[in-house]
Design brief:
heterotrimer; A mainly alpha; B mainly alpha; C alpha/beta; A: mainly alpha; 14 helices; B: mainly alpha; ABC transporter involved in vitamin B12 uptake, BtuC; two-stranded antiparallel sheet; 13 helices; 77% helix; globular
Chain lengths: 364, 313, 518
């Protein structure tokens, strides 16, 4: 086995191990809190596949995660730890809502403009921690998290003070303009045009990171910023650029989610897709093309948890616990490394022995 | 506006300010210890949240304040231990490891609350125990000063005592010397036989204790029940305060006071007819601005020093 | 040698996680009260062997005996408790702590839960006086000179009870005079019964100081000798496996047009410390201009300024007649400046990217690599990678493998390939052969010579005086940020001469120095 094969094998086993541990955690939680754990488990794991509508739920739920995970991946590739995709996403929903409600336009164009507005807003928000870091070396981790709170309050303010449906008892906006909504594409589900957009963006993202000059500079900068600088690349510019693109994607994701899934703005707090996007991106292992799969997996868990909560006594917050557990396990660099080391040692020694044999036979 | 100003210059405002700074200060001191040891503990937020709930549950089911404290601190230590294990033994990135803990905490607290009370919002149906408030004899009779300094929650006094204790730890004990050395040059410390990993474990656990106290203060002092997401970013603000205070106890105290000032001012500003969302943004905006100004100054200082040297020539 | 054995390492094998076999079946034995040299090329496995002795790395196989007893040394703490002390090549000191704090760290005297600061100071004072190693005890370590820091390191080991002292290339950062001082100290320690392991590949130093020598090559023991019984040539042959040409031939050339023109260059760093003090020099086509100096005397800043990595300097720096001030690094590179950085791990490579990706780091702007729709032309890039790997004899399985899996010498060849393939006019080579095995070093030196013969200009900064004297046509010595000496002809210059100027004992007259701008 060469090193590449060894890495692949170890990664596959690691993934399997993570899944097994996760399953064990889920079972442990459910058995300890539920009076009818088998029913809960059945609903959790099998429930999401029991109807077309529920399978649709998985796909719909994966859509916003795909957007935020792409954003997170780009930011991480630049070697930055901005958590801004959460804020960019939510500001995207707010701006898309405002455009939908305040600016009448013809069908199609309206959605387009709303999405562009959302994307721009997301980009602007992501630009703030990025430029603060670039100019004055302010820690992007903390500023981005603080900014997430600011975005959340700002969007809630928009709804409450400008677009609030007064006849509704809970917080909700007026009905969104039908001209701005994204069409559904699969009958019997809520799967909407945004899903296609998400898939296209994943391909675009792959091309960007693997085939474009900017992507090359991004990889170089993420791997070693001092080297990138030395080679004549404006490494801070690349970092800011990556974060702005990430914000654009996350913001657009917010717009897509609102216009694809809802007919009113109903959130009272930020739905947290930005945070979930982190674990989705980590599971996709740096490859934009794997993001949709990874997003579907976490969406499946969310869907299962929701179905379980409806049909049993277990709350759907178990999904968030699982996200935390999986994230913890994925980022554990040392997991299985001892085993990997053993394989590498064996391979290297075998190679040396073979080389020695060859040189011996040559000398003879 | 004048009523607002009058409010800010009142003894009640200062009293409130001290009340508000307590959880941030405690977590921030914890953050200092971790930073000095070379670990950025982004999990402060989650640890606070979990210990806030654990304190309430422990009190309600254990039947007393002490049981609550034991439970709250126990959970804080346990979570810190998990963070330490994954970061130090499993080589997980501290930022992501902390984020995982925060995600876990957000889910686990609501889940536990729901399982025990059937509610997802607050623990109001649980019998709650709070830390006592303490009136300092004699001082409480001094006009103005008494009403500012006396009559605070027990944890508030612990927090201010902790500033001194952290200082003592850093600069007067062998453990502190080791903590400071492993943050700056872990290889050097290791080369003289300091067990870097073990020392970091100790630092993370000490941080957990302080942060856990801060978390419990939220549900057993500041309020007397747990509410969903009640920590609301204070863990992150505390981390910012620790960074701004250059991870020294006094620095953390001053910057925590600064951020807490904006939080208490936002309580006062509720009197104005501004949208409440803008007022609630204030502590977060203040943190961003505070960190930025601090960083600008740091950069300018270095620049000015270089300029001054050129001028001298 | 008849004394008692202080230490024996038996059949030691070490395989690193990336599959590199650093040691294979090494045997190493040291007697009490001797100074024992451990020699080998860079990358031969000396440092790895010592790391295992000091508990930093664990052997994959093999045993270690200390004073005749078999020991498993799983941590530095254990090594220290066995009386082993190590002075690392990169100092293991905490800059913001004081000398005393650094010395007692790990074995702090206590009073209750408190640090006993009085006793700490007394202990530090005692060792420092006993061994005549004077250092300012209360100063923070960042204020000390390199030589002083090394003394602190030795004192620290002694305070921790070391009987066996390992010194990893201790003279690499010292001036010849400081080296002499260190040798006297080490001999004194030997006479007091201490055992010293002296890691070095400087053969003259080994001859001067050591009793016995163990030579390792490619991770294997090549033999143990009494230093008196072997010649330098023999040692060198054992280390390298073939006779190294110590003297380098140079074909005489006529210097051409001026490529680099520096005038009145001064620079202050972030902390306001002056690092360059009015430097003026000229370098021409068809020549190698050497820069000698003890590290930290302005070489790094000079090189960073010329390559565009530092701005905000006073004076003028012109490359091919164009002022460099205010240019971006990219613009400087496009002028025809190439730069082989001293610290290739942080400045010269992106570890997890492939060899090919690393090769084109400075060329992502070039048309050759961009296809029709503005995307990168994968095919052209791969061809280029394969071409470079072959041309520069990079030993690897494929140009697509991550560069971090290569040895130091091959990484440096990749750096060289990248920098020379952009067809430069001025090549700045900063410590081009440091940490590089002898074979690759020779290759690199030959490439630099070729550049000179092809009419390019080379600015060579090196702490290897032999290399510097062998390659340079003209030479300057930097000291305290200024030029202390200029030699228009390097053939008559000795290392001792350079040492005097490097250390600031001597300084040429200004008229002599001004010759460098001729």
């Amino acid at each position: 086995m060469n090193n590449k094969q060894i890495n692949l094998l170890v990664d596959a086993v690691k993934l399997l191990l993570i899944m097994v541990i996760t399953l064990a955690v889920i079972a442990a939680i459910i058995f300890s809190v539920s009076d009818d754990p088998l029913n809960a488990l059945y609903n959790f794991f099998v429930g999401p596949f029991l109807s077309m509508r529920r399978i649709g739920n998985i796909v719909e739920g994966a859509c916003p995660l795909t957007f935020t995970a792409m954003a997170v991946m780009l930011i991480f590739k630049a070697g930055q730890f901005s958590m801004i995709s959460e804020g960019s996403f939510f500001i995207g929903t707010g701006v898309a809502m405002s455009i939908s409600l305040a600016v009448p336009m013809p069908t199609g164009l309206h959605a387009l403009v709303a999405l562009l507005g959302a994307a721009l807003a997301g980009a602007f928000i992501a630009f703030i921690p990025a430029i603060l870091k670039k100019t004055w070396d302010v820690s992007e981790v903390v500023t981005s998290i603080m900014l997430n709170y600011v975005c959340e309050f700002f969007v809630i303010y928009l709804v409450t003070y400008h677009f609030k449906e007064t006849s509704s008892s809970s917080l909700a906006s007026w009905e969104l303009a039908p001209t701005s909504l994204l069409p559904k594409i699969v009958p019997g589900t809520n799967i909407h045009l945004g899903v296609i957009l998400a898939l296209l963006l994943c391909v675009g993202c792959w091309v960007l990171t693997n085939r474009s000059r900017f992507g090359y500079q991004l990889r170089l900068t993420g791997s070693n910023p001092s080297f990138s600088h030395y080679a004549g690349i404006k490494e801070t510019g690349v970092m800011v650029g990556a974060q702005v693109i990430a914000g654009t994607i996350a913001g657009m994701g917010g717009g897509v989610e609102l216009l694809g899934m809802y007919n009113r703005f109903k959130w009272t707090t930020s739905p947290g897709f930005g945070w979930t996007g982190i674990v989705v991106a980590l599971l996709a292992k740096d490859n934009p093309l794997l993001i949709p799969l990874s997003a579907c997996f976490f969406s499946y868990i969310n869907t299962g948890a929701n179905i379980m909560a409806m049909n049993s006594d277990v709350s759907n917050d178990v999904a968030q616990i699982i996200q935390g557990v999986i994230m913890m396990l994925i980022v554990s660099g040392a997991l299985l490394q001892r085993w990997r080391q053993k394989l590498v040692v064996r391979a290297a020694e075998k190679e040396q022995a073979e080389a020695a044999a060859v040189s011996a036979s040559v000398e003879a | 506006m004048s009523t607002v100003l009058a409010n800010i210059f009142s003894a009640e405002f200062v009293y409130m300010w001290i009340r508000v700074v307590t959880p941030i200060l405690l977590a921030s001191l914890g953050g200092c210890i971790c930073n000095q040891a070379g670990v950025v503990n982004l999990g402060l937020e989650g640890i606070m949240l979990l210990s806030a709930l654990a304190g309430v549950i422990g009190g309600a089911y254990g039947g007393g304040l002490l049981a609550g404290v034991a439970c709250g601190l126990g959970v804080a230590l346990l979570v810190s231990l998990i963070f330490a294990y994954f970061h130090l033994n499993m080589e997980a990135d501290a930022t992501l490891c902390g984020t995982a803990i925060n995600t876990f905490a957000a889910g686990a607290t609501v889940m536990a609350l729901f399982t025990l009370t059937g509610e997802k919002g607050t623990s109001s149906s649980l019998l709650s125990f709070s830390f006592p408030t303490i009136n300092i004899p004699l001082i409480d009779r001094i006009p103005i000063l008494g009403s500012i300094v006396s009559g605070h929650n027990f944890v508030t006094y612990v927090a201010f005592l902790a500033v001194f204790l952290t200082w003592f730890l850093f600069y007067r004990t062998p453990l502190g010397l080791r903590i400071r050395s492993i943050g700056e040059n872990p290889d050097a410390a290791a080369s003289v036989g300091v067990n870097v990993r073990r020392t970091r474990y100790v630092a993370i656990l000490l941080c957990g204790l302080l942060t856990g106290m801060g978390g419990m203060y939220m549900s057993m002092g500041y309020l007397s029940m747990f509410t969903r997401g009640m920590v609301a970013g204070r863990g992150f603000i505390a981390l910012a305060a620790a960074a701004m205070g250059q991870s020294t106890p006094i620095g953390a105290l001053l910057s925590s006071m600064l951020f807490a000032f904006f939080e208490s001012i936002s309580n006062t500003l509720q009197l104005l007819a501004l949208p409440s969302q803008f007022i609630r943004m204030l502590p977060y905006v203040a943190t961003i601005l505070g960190l930025t100004i601090y960083s600008i100054q740091k950069k300018n200082k270095a620049y000015a020093r270089a300029q001054a040297a050129v001028q001298e020539k | 040698m008849h004394g008692e054995e202080a230490l024996r390492m038996e059949n030691i094998t070490k395989v690193y996680p990336n599959g590199v076999i650093a040691n294979s079946d090494i045997n190493f034995s040291v007697m009490k009260g001797e100074i024992h040299a451990l020699s080998g090329e860079n990358g031969a496995g000396k440092s790895t062997l010592m790391k295992m002795l000091f508990g930093i790395e664990q052997p994959t196989r093999g045993d270690i005996y200390v004073n005749g007893e078999k020991k498993v040394i799983s941590s530095s703490a254990e090594a220290i408790s066995l009386g082993i002390g190590m002075v690392h090549q990169h100092f293991m000191l905490v800059p913001s702590l004081s000398v005393v704090e650094n010395m007692v760290l790990g074995q702090e005297p206590r009073r209750g839960v408190m640090l006993d600061r009085k006793t700490a100071k007394a202990q530090a004072k005692e060792v420092s006086e006993k061994y005549h190693l004077g250092v300012p005890l209360d100063a923070p370590v960042y204020d000390l000179s390199v030589g002083q820091k090394q003394k602190v390191e030795i004192l620290k080991a002694l305070l921790h009870g070391a009987k066996i002292l390992i010194l990893d290339e201790p003279t690499a950062v010292l001036t010849p005079q400081e080296t002499q001082e260190l040798f006297i100290e080490l001999k004194n320690l030997r006479d007091d019964g201490y055992t010293v392991i002296f890691i070095s590949h400087k053969l003259n130093e080994v001859r001067e100081l050591c009793d016995r020598i163990t030579i390792i090559r490619h991770g294997r023991t090549m033999g143990v000798y009494d230093v008196r019984d072997v010649s330098e040539r023999e040692i060198s042959r054992l280390m390298v496996g073939r006779d190294v040409v110590l003297h380098m031939d140079r074909t005489p050339t006529m210097p051409g047009d001026v490529v680099l023109d520096v005038e009145g260059l001064s620079y202050w760093n972030h902390y306001g410390k002056q690092r360059l003090n009015g430097i003026s020099l000229r370098a021409r086509r068809n020549e190698v201009l050497g820069v000698a100096g003890v590290e930290g005397n302005g070489q790094a800043e000079l090189v960073d300024i010329i390559s565009g990595n530092l701005s905000r300097f006073q004076g003028s720096v012109r490359v091919l007649g164009k002022e460099v001030s205010g240019m971006s690094i990219r613009q400087v590179r496009e002028l025809g400046v190439s730069y082989i950085p001293e610290d290739r791990m942080t400045m010269g490579m992106a570890g997890d990217l492939s060899i090919t990706d690393n090769l084109m780091a400075d060329k992502s702007y070039r048309d050759r690599f961009v296809g029709k729709v503005g995307l990168l032309d994968k095919k052209s890039i791969q061809e280029y990678g394969a071409e470079m790997v072959e041309r520069y004899q990079v030993v690897c399985k494929s140009p697509d493998q991550p560069i971090s899996s290569l040895s130091g010498g091959n990484i440096q060849k990749v750096v060289l390939a990248r920098e020379l393939s952009s067809n430069p006019e001025l090549v700045i080579a900063d410590q081009p052969t440091r940490g590089v095995d002898v074979g690759a070093s020779e290759f690199i030196r030959q490439e630099l010579r070729n550049l000179r013969d092809q009419g390019k200009c080379v600015l060579l900064v090196s702490s290897d005086l032999n290399e510097l004297l062998g390659l340079s046509d003209r030479l300057i010595v930097l000291c305290d940020g200024g030029i202390a000496a200029y030699f228009a002809d390097t053939s008559e210059v000795t290392e001792e001469d350079l040492g005097r100027f490097m250390l600031g004992i001597d300084r040429q007259a200004d008229e002599e120095i001004a010759g460098v701008r001729a």
